[in-house]
Amino acid sequence: MKKAFLILFIYCGLMSTAWSQQNLNFKTLDVKGGLADNYVRDITRDSYGFMWFSTINGLSRYDGYVYKNYMLDKVGVYNNDVSRVMETADGMLWLVSDNNVLVYNRQKDAIENNGKEMLNKLGIKKATNKLYVDESHNLWASLNEALYNYNYTKKSLTVIPLNQKPDVIDIASRGDVTAILTNDGRFYRVDLNSKKLIYEGETKLSNISRYHHLYLDCRMRL
To answer: pTM of the predicted model, to two decimals?
Structure first.
């Protein structure tokens, strides 16, 4: 009995020590501290260590101490709603709003409304605001007729025909696996080698929100 009590006592002591070592401190980031808006759509940490917050009222950069906010209406966009911010392998920050693609110029520390021109340089000739960046920081762009993947290491563009499939509304990527979700609730795996989409399944999308996202877990399950 004493031996069992001693084992239980040691176990509880070890658990208590482990819990105290894992005690985490949380800090609230909000408009009171300088965030552009409390409604945050997307968060990205770039290669320079900055945290970027896409909000409905502008883009916020956070260095761990202070914020700097960037407004889209100063460069000709009709509102400041930023839905996504992403960094590609070349260090470029891409911003997506409802009808625009913008980029962040690090040298000028400014947002520029020339995303269409930057896409054109990569071989994506038509305008689109459906952009995604995968785990390898390669760029994906979706148009009605095709899905584009620009590989920054190979400096090559792969075009995958959509063959009149419904609009792509989200892309998920983990490792070598990439999948897309279309607005009819179907999801496909992307085969870059054969330039084809492989049907995986479908689900009914909720009508409550216009934002739907796809996720791949660590076992590559959708």
So the answer is: 0.82
